[in-house]
Amino acid sequence: MDILILIVIIAVVAVAVISGLVVNGRRKQAPPPPDGTRARPAPPAEPQVGEDAAPPVTEEERRTIEEVILPGPEAPPAPPAPEVEVPEPAAGRMVRLRARLARSQNSLGRGLLTLLARERLDEDTWEEIEEILLTADVGPAPTVELVERLRERVRVLGTRSPEELRALLREELLAQLGTDLDREVRTEGGVSPEGEERPAVILVVGVNGTGKTTTTGKLARVLVAEGHSVVLGAADTFRAAAADQLQTWGERVGARTVRGPEGGDPASVAFDAVKEGITQGADVVLVDTAGRLHTKSGLMDELGKVKRVVEKHGPVGEVLLVLDATTGQNGLTQAKVFAQVVDVTGIALTKLDGTAKGGIVVAVQRELGVPVKLVGLGEGADDLAPFDPEAFVDALLA
Ligand SMILES: Nc1nc2c(ncn2[C@@H]2O[C@H](COP(=O)(O)OP(=O)(O)OP(=O)(O)O)[C@@H](O)[C@H]2O)c(=O)[nH]1
């Protein structure tokens, strides 16, 4: 009986102990949060060691201050690179611009044809013909020569049909302009004694305001259109705007412009431009010079120095004189001073679209003994044309 009582007591104690353990275990489980999400484990109150320890935060994982993206205004977009233009081919430009020439030179060509077609070619008529030629700035000596030739040829002509007169006048005008002159702008470079390739160097000279800088820029386009690589030298350091103007022309066709400080030494800019041309392996270096000088000795000093300094790199292949066709005899006198200072090898005659004095082409060639190589026929970027005597005379007689 005692044993039975003992077994019952042991059983009761055992049940009590087991149920106590279960309740304790349940109490240790955290209740789920009311929203059903999983609770984050609480960070350890103290650093742990051994297997329980969290791996350390490495340097790579730590964000530096530069990596932090702060809210703020967006950075402005980079300015677009200037667009490089493809200039129009130079060949045939004079034909394209023929209408402009025909308009401006109407009084010369048509005037001569009308007078030559008169029934009676008396002394008065010949004087009128002479007058027309002089007014168009053909110049006294070429005018006398031309009138004599025309008189002689008309005398032997039986009839004077408009076609015959046109053909005759065309021939005589062409003879005055010269059809066999070398009008190519020289773009052949050279080789230094050390065997280094050198670009062709073109100096552009002339009185300021004649269109010198504009012509340099337009010529750069002509050369680029012909496939040449070009470097520009802004040696007109007297006017900062001239360098800006030239640089803008250059940027449009992807040509670099070398410039110096305002009022700096033009010869040094010219020298640096040619040096840059050699470094870049450019085909042509075009140097825009200043023509502000009023005295011949000042001009001689400056242009002479520019040429001498540039020639340390090698010979200057071309000296282009820019002449404003609207300035007539006055412009011609100035041109002669330039020709005495430097060996001019070609003429760029500008603003031929704005004057009836196209005869200046004959006069300037005669006076300076150098061919007109380029003519300016407008303010447009591609309005500079290689001079073509036949297209010119055809426009005159249109
Ligand atoms: N109509 C016409 N205008 C031209 C021609 N060539 C140049 N011009 C204009 O003539 C003006 C003077 O040109 P510039 O190139 O600034 O003259 P510049 O000789 O370089 O003068 P500086 O820069 O002061 O030395 C500009 O308005 C040109 O657009 C042309 O063939 N026809």
Automatic annotation (TrEMBL):
Residues 371-384 form the SRP54-type proteins GTP-binding domain. Belongs to the GTP-binding SRP family. FtsY subfamily. One of its GO terms (cellular component) is plasma membrane. GO terms for molecular function: GTP binding; GTPase activity; signal recognition particle binding. It comes from the Bacteria. It comes from Streptomyces marincola. GO terms for biological process: SRP-dependent cotranslational protein targeting to membrane. Its main location: membrane. It is found in: Cell membrane; Cytoplasm. It catalyses: GTP + H2O = GDP + phosphate + H(+). Residues 30-46 have a biased composition (Pro residues). PANTHER family: SIGNAL RECOGNITION PARTICLE RECEPTOR SUBUNIT ALPHA. Part of the signal recognition particle protein translocation system, which is composed of SRP and FtsY. GTP binds at residues 206-213, 288-292, 350-353. It is a peripheral membrane protein. Residues 25-60 are annotated as: Disordered. This is Signal recognition particle receptor FtsY. Its EC number is 3.6.5.4.
